[in-house]
TrEMBL record, chains A, B:
Pathway: Cofactor biosynthesis; NAD(+) biosynthesis; nicotinate D-ribonucleotide from nicotinate: step 1/1. Pfam families: NAPRTase_C (PF17956), NAPRTase_N (PF17767). GO terms for molecular function: nicotinamide phosphoribosyltransferase activity; nicotinate phosphoribosyltransferase activity. Transiently phosphorylated on a His residue during the reaction cycle. Phosphorylation strongly increases the affinity for substrates and increases the rate of nicotinate D-ribonucleotide production. Dephosphorylation regenerates the low-affinity form of the enzyme, leading to product release. Keywords: Glycosyltransferase, Ligase, Phosphoprotein, Pyridine nucleotide biosynthesis, Transferase. It catalyses: 5-phospho-alpha-D-ribose 1-diphosphate + nicotinate + ATP + H2O = nicotinate beta-D-ribonucleotide + ADP + phosphate + diphosphate. It comes from the Bacteria. Transmembrane segments: none annotated. One of its GO terms (biological process) is NAD+ biosynthetic process via the salvage pathway. This is Nicotinate phosphoribosyltransferase. Catalyzes the first step in the biosynthesis of NAD from nicotinic acid, the ATP-dependent synthesis of beta-nicotinate D-ribonucleotide from nicotinate and 5-phospho-D-ribose 1-phosphate. CDD domains: NAPRTase_A (cd01570). Residues 17-141 form the Nicotinate phosphoribosyltransferase N-terminal domain.
Length: 493, 493
């Protein structure tokens, strides 16, 4: 398998040591106690959709692939670890010869995902399956957060173009770079982040800052100089001094004096401050009257899905949104709380012993066992009806009806006929060998559009969306109950 | 000058192409219009302290140094830019032979900084001084945000140890790595992020996850195995099943059975869920009675400055806090709104023409001209009285009193005697040559402690802190007024 456009070859960073120190102290401990050779199953999942939304957009699988493909401890890494004087020579040797040998499954990027579904499953020696926790969480938590936020913003824009403009306010360089990637997956059609075009093929866009205008003797001269350099792609920033008294009149003057005589049509004007509802309407009216009804109005300035929905509902006339800080940091809810929990351990005879993490907080109780997820679609309209988490050994026969039931209120049941299913988890590593190829970012963006189309509008709603059903198979539900009863008799008050 | 521990040699990334596309379209335009050779002065500053705090902690200068030292366009970069078909051959050649030649000043890391103060000043050819905008903002915005948040959290902990635990929830890999750096600068004394110890010398710490305990037949066996591997540094996570009925009794049993006979004292117990006020008090009582009054209680679980202050005020008995997602993302306010604005342009005869960015929003009006900042200290107690922004040509004679005045309510005046001053901006690049050496991260951490000591407690307060004075010199104020009157007569309604 080849990595070209997708792969972070430019930077070629080895992020092996980007790991919580406790993964190392546990690793060392596993070897010492011989528990490290046990085969463990870990699930990565989340418990809540940010912003009380109806679903999330899976993202980050390609970067997990790059990370796992590059796992390797350098001599300096070993030297550094040795200097800590807490790791055994046996463990340091293990790391020196580290060869990733786990099986890994993941929900492919771009699919809508829901709370409590395993998004990534890792099976392998406990010492390895544990070690990759930090980077799997960091990668999926970040990109899924931003892809989900971007998807909300693009939905609010109702088909208008949304450009990702956040690099300068991102949380670190990768926040900008992979944030731009995730934003494109979520639906943005371009980015201001140049390196994101180079790395991922997301169209990079940009025109001028206020400083361009300030560097010239006056606004008219600045616009004129711009139009002369970019006659075929001329968008002017018109709010440096005063939009209606100065910016727009100067822009129209330059359109007429510089572009039209050369046979070019102007592309757009951009507003970056002020009351964008009022100004966009006024600008539209004036542009139309001046014969520029084809000139786009581009708007930026601390936008998010709430403001975009609001200004559009007030009749703002906007063709394109530039969205910065509130997208690139997911400002309204900047933490995606994915977790990585032990789900099962394999005995030496190969039998799988399911594990459960109990908690006094019922929502924090995990689903035990080695599992898979089926998405169930209605044959009549291709809409997704529910997701069903089953044990890995279970298969669904599409010819038979399925009975779904609420895992808490089990008397709430539903029988489904005329359906088809899709398995969500796909194997990406087989005993450490990569067996999956990621689509390009702009292809993943299309997957998002196709797959969210299959959700009912009630699930897509911003406010109080319908709770999409994520149910457990009877077998998994029984297993969970059994373990809960067992533990509760031992520990829970 | 050598880069060793401080420098990101491990990754050696060239982030030249991490740039907003408009810096490139402007750069190309400057060359075409001959405006690019003008010498421009840009200021990086912010307008508001996050969380309505009283001050921010400057951070990120070392990474600006690394970025500017590495600025270079590779052949692939040029190829990519050429493929966009909008850049002139002259511009591509300029980039091919790019040599950074600007002067750069910055406030050294660890200093408290305030709104409207230039934190970074860049002077050089407009095309270059403009180009570095994205990365200067991205770097300082991120690290100052996290250092400031960490400083709040550490203040709430009132001298107790605060460990940075956030990697898994950070916004991207650099969010974790440089976030850990900034958190240490702000006051955290350790991190879970292993690579941050390797790169910056911040002590990395960690023990076990719940999965360690689940991988053993029972909690007791898991604790016993741990104590046998780490007898001299044994901290046990006691909330996997039930803190008081299972975790703590098993921990005490293992302390008595495994550690004491070998002559070791246990180090601590860790709580990661539940009501930490109640549980910490109970655990302390039980540990003390069992003869373990020297055993630390470590607490984690969605902490921030507000929760820490709250549980401490309720009498929680905690020695050490592990702080994760709310620190590493600055969850309560995850955007640091630093901006980069043109302050002046040099004419061909060398005279500096100050530039102002006006706005209908008064707070967004910039301070014009090439400037510097004096921090004024009281000789009697070394407390910081005020900061004074002056033109670069102005000097303060400490033998004469200074009159400070409020830049809005100019009748609010204050005459200062018996003071001394410190210039805040330090030159870090001279015509593109690095002339400054950053202290190590743990030294910067000390600077923060020393410099925040010099602020009055009223400025340090969380709620409604005293507004530290940031005043303008008479000369700068006069200049600003003059420009405002000039522009307002032209444009403002």
């Amino acid at each position: 398998m080849e990595f070209t456009k997708n792969f972070d070859v430019r930077n070629g960073r080895n992020l092996t040591m980007l790991v919580d120190f406790y993964e190392l102290t546990m690793g060392n401990g596993y070897l010492e106690s011989e528990a490290g050779n046990k085969t463990a199953y870990f699930d990565m999942f989340f418990r809540r959709v940010p912003d009380d939304g109806g679903y999330c957009i899976m993202a980050g699988v390609q970067q997990i692939i790059e990370y796992l493909s590059n796992l390797k401890f350098s001599d300096e890494d070993i030297e550094y670890l040795k200097s800590r004087n807490i790791f055994s020579e046996k463990f340091l040797n293990y790391l020196r010869n580290f060869k990733f040998c786990c099986d890994v499954w993941a929900v492919p990027e771009g699919n809508p995902v829901f709370p409590n579904e395993p998004l990534v499953v890792v099976k392998g020696p406990a010492i390895q399956a544990q070690f990759v926790e930090t980077m799997i969480l960091l990668t999926v938590n970040h990109q899924t957060l931003i892809a989900t936020k971007a998807n909300r913003i693009c939905r609010a824009a109702e088909g208008r173009s949304v450009m990702e403009f956040g690099s300068r306010r991102a949380q670190g360089y990768d926040g900008a770079i992979y944030g731009a990637r995730a934003a494109a997956i979520g639906g943005c059609n371009s980015t201001a982040c140049t390196i994101a075009e180079q790395m991922f093929g997301i169209p990079a866009v940009g025109t001028m800052a206020h400083s361009w205008i300030q560097l010239f003797p006056n606004e008219y001269e600045a616009f004129k100089a711009w139009a002369e350099v970019y006659p075929d792609n001329c968008t002017l920033l018109i709010d440096t001094y005063n939009v209606l008294k100065s910016g727009l009149p100067n822009a129209i003057k330059v359109f007429n004096e510089v572009l039209l005589p050369k046979g070019y049509r102007p592309k757009g004007i951009r507003l970056d401050s002020g009351d964008i509802t009022y100004l966009s309407k006024k600008c539209r009216e004036i542009l139309d009257k001046a014969g520029f009804s084809d000139v786009n109005i581009v708007v930026s300035n601390s936008l998010d899905e709430f403001i975009i929905r609001d200004v559009l509902s007030q009749g703002a006339v906007i063709d394109s949104f530039g969205v910065g800080e509130r997208l690139i940091t997911a400002k309204s809810e900047p933490v995606f709380g994915g977790v990585y929990k032990l789900a099962a351990v394999e005995n030496e005879d190969g039998t799988i012993v399911p594990k459960i993490k109990i908690s006094e907080n019922e929502e924090k109780i995990t689903n035990p066992g080695f599992k898979k997820i089926y998405r169930i679609f209605d044959k009549a309209n291709d809409k997704a009806i529910a997701d069903l988490i089953t044990l890995a050994e279970e298969n669904i026969d599409e010819n038979n009806p399925i009975e779904l039931f609420n895992p808490v209120y089990t008397w709430k049941k539903k029988k489904i006929k005329d359906y088809y299913v899709k398995e969500l988890l796909v194997k990406i590593f087989d005993k450490g060998k990569l067996v999956y190829e990621s689509p390009d970012v702009m292809e993943i963006r299309k997957i998002v559009q196709e797959e969210t189309e299959k959700l009912w509008p009630e699930v897509l709603r911003f406010e109080n969306p319908h709770n999409y059903y994520v149910d457990l198979s009877r077998k998994l539900w029984d297993l969970k109950e059994e373990l809960l009863h067992k533990y509760s008799s031992e520990y829970v008050e």
